Amino acid sequence: MLTIPLSISAQTIVSTKHNLSVTGPGTIKATTEQEICIFCHAPHNGRPDQPLWNRLDPGLTYTLYTSSTTQATLGQPDGASILCLSCHDGTIALGSVISRGAPITMAGGVTTMPTGVSNLTKDISNDHPISFLYDAALAAADGQLVNPASLTGPVKLWNGKLQCTSCHDPHKNNFSAFLVATTQSSNLCLTCHTPTNWAGGSHRNSTATWNGVAPDPWFHTAYTTVAQNGCENCHNPHSAGGKLRLMDFQPEENNCLDCHNGNVAGKNIQAQFAKTYKHNVYGYTGIHDPVENSLVATNHVECVDCHNAHQTNNTAAVAPNVNGFMIGLKGINQAGNPVNPALYEYEICYRCHTNTPGMSPPATPRVIVQGNVRLEFATTNPSFHPVVGPRNNTEITGNLIAPNTASTVLYCTACHASDGTGSPKGPHGSIYPRILKQQYITTDNTTETAAAYALCYSCHNRNNIINNINTFPEHRLHIVDEKAPCNVCHDAHGIGSPGTLTNNSNLINFRTGIVTPSGGIIQFTDTGVRHGSCRLTCHGFNHNPETY
Amino acid sequence: MKITKLLTALTSLLLLANVGLGQTIVGSSHDFSTQSWNTTGEICICCHTPHNANISVPDAPLWNHQLTIATFQLYTSPTFNGASTITQPSGSSKLCLSCHDGTVALENFSQTTNGTHYISGVNNLGNDLRNDHPISFVYDAALAAADPGLWNPTTHPSGIGSGTITNTMLFNNKMECASCHDVHNSTGIAHLLLKTNAASALCLTCHNK
Fold first, then answer.
1. Whole domain around residue A515: which residue ranges?
2. Do residues B126 and B71 touch, judged by C-beta distance below 8 A?
3. Is residue A308 part of a domain?
4. Is the Cβ of B79 closer than 8 Å to some Cβ of chain A?
5. Of B76, B132, B149, the CB nearest to A44
6. A-chain residues near B132 (CB < 8 A)
7. Which of the 8 DSSP states describes residue A447?
8. Phi/psi class of residue A116: alpha, beta or left (left: φ > 0; alpha: ψ in -120 to 50)?
9. B135 touches chain A (CB under 8 A)
């Protein structure tokens, strides 16, 4: 019971950089001082207020960590952390100890801590917070922290507070950086932090390695796989470039794209963002906030708006259910109410594409003006593409290309996604407007080809459409002969209020400007399966009305 | 004068002769024979007397110095597992503090109680011992088990002879001033240390750091 494991005794302060005496192994050491402990502790005549401390309190006001997701009450450093900072803030000479009349002389003229990763400076806002009370109430408020009562291992609290010494043991360097446990696979971090669904996440489990092409995504660790780096794929506990939530970088997307650039992850997402039409994650910095409302109030997009880096994995799903890439995200449901987590992919899109301020108006001017994508897809609408639920009639079923059927439900990303064979899934970037997966020309007088309307033809049988088989019997006249694009008559998302089943079935919502009134009226009337009439003027032809 | 010079010369010879054979209190910082406040010219007399000693003082062989009656502020720390056994300075430590707390005059020995010379500077620990290494607490195997930063004193060698910490440095399993210091200067090491503290060897005898 009293045997001390050899693994502990193998490493002592004598062989670490914290041996600042003349016998120390590091580059920073004394010229003649033989004692080791003396740099921090004195058996007599040290500070009266702290246990045998031999260094002065820097007495500084530090710039503290702050974040919208921190529930802890953060104050100025106290407890043992002060002793650490008396060297590591770079303000007091390393050899300046209380018990000696004169400072201990350091080799090479070193006085205070040289600039570098060991010098945290007075700005500790980019370092993991310290000196805060970590109690059960904090754990409960955060929801992703263990109850501190369970901290019976190497990570310890001091007077209930997390201090530098919770993660670091200045006397032993059994792991790197004097840590009390290994950071491999974030073992140390996960002692306290319990990110929801982390265990099943790709960033926890992926064995992907870096191909060696700069920049080094793991510049602050020695680990070689995603799983080994764990939290440190994105977070840096000290001197974090992003400060907030200790991200590696302040521009949010940089924390993702240093791996998702073809150098670690299998797909090159960064390349998609070089395209003209994209969810422009580069365009915003410091706007996204993890605690923002489900309904986005200030227009922006970041990777983390659509992906939860703690939870994301490659689990497949059936539309409209969210797949693994998009689990653990907020959403707006079809009724317009916040949901967390979103269950259906479109709910995540609706966070912005419902009526977020600053969103672009609809690209196509139409008879019934719509600006809220959520309402366009309602299954109570006269017609809609089947994103929220299956279509409401079987009229076009005969023209659908397998495996599409009357009961098919589509993801938004069936149409809106990166172009190109082998491109990563999802609407990252495309050469086509509105981030469409394939070409969808909307210019009037376009010569009909398979390529011109490739997006539509990926589901709708081109041969049938341009030969009037099982479809609107004048399709060929309009598309091939008159060179009208699909977009002129059809409103692809769907038609909500004030559309009607009589006038707006089959996604009919005419494009104004090209389609003009006849006798003051632009109107389609559905009179049965593949029968109807149109009153309008187009390409100089007055339909007053034309019936079929 | 001649006698004094002769004594000094003899003392020097004695010191030289003793090099390599163990040091003595003679000539050490605890040799008060030449101090102005010590009119006896003796060394041992400041603490001990062969006769008429104060037998009411525990752990005090032939004690001859007035004892401190001070109450001390004790060492405390959230990382100190000896807090449950630490007491007011006891055993021989109280004898040390009868000079080193600065409340009892140096010359208050052999019935003298009206001395006017007091210890000063870094040697005066005062009655506030919070900035001094804790003493008068039990350092046993249980304490070492509770604090992995300590060696098990019952098995770990002290480096003093072939003994363990317990049997060469502790007193009734307690750490006292004399665990680190030999008041009689048997080692000749500065600060009357029991063993050298180069590379913090003395500290690391007990502290597993």
1. 396-547
2. no
3. no
4. yes
5. B132
6. 43-45, 52
7. P
8. left
9. no
Domain ranges (residues) in chain B: 37-129
Q: pLDDT at residue B106 above 80? A: yes
Which pLDDT belongs to residue B18?
38
CA B62 to chain centre: 16
Across the range A60-73, mean pLDDT stands at 95
Look up tokens 């914290």; give the residue.
Answer: A18
The pair of three-digit structure tokens given for residue A308, joined into one six-digit string: 């939860």
Q: Report which DSSP code applies to A263.
A: T
CA A380 distance to own-chain centroid: 33
Q: Is residue A324 part of a domain?
A: no
Structure tokens at A506: 């089959």
Mutate to test the interface with A, among B200, B202, B208 (most CBs of A within 10 A): B200
- Give the nearest chain A residue to B199 (CA atoms): A35
Using CA coordinates, name the residue in chain B closest to A24: B199
CA distances from A167 to A131, A191, B169 (A): 12, 10, 33
CB–CB contact B203 A37 (8 Å): yes
Q: Assess if residue A176 is contained within a domain.
A: yes
Question: Per residue in A150-184, pLDDT tens?
Answer: 999 999 999 999 999 999 999 999 999 999 999 99
Q: Which has the higher per-residue pLDDT, A251 or B19? A: A251
Residues of A in Cβ contact (< 8 Å) with B197? 34-35
Q: Which of B79, B141, B180 is closest, CB to CB, to A2?
A: B141
Of B77, B180, B208, nearest to A43 by CB-CB distance is: B180
Q: For A248-277, how does the pLDDT look when each residue is reduced to its tens digit (9 = 90+)? A: 999 999 999 999 999 999 999 999 999 999
DSSP letter at A169? -
Q: Mean pLDDT of all residues in chain A?
A: 94
pLDDT at residue B78, as a whole number? 83
Contact B197 A34 (CB under 8 A): yes
- Residue-level pLDDT at A48: 66
Q: Determine, yes or no, domain membership for A103.
A: yes
pLDDT in tens, B25-71: 999 999 999 999 999 999 999 999 999 999 888 788 899 999 999 99
Q: Residue B141: its chain A contacts at CB < 8 A?
A: 2
Please state the domain count of chain A. 2
Final residue in a domain of this structure, among A131, A162, A181: A181
Which residue in chain A has the smallest CA separation from B193? A43
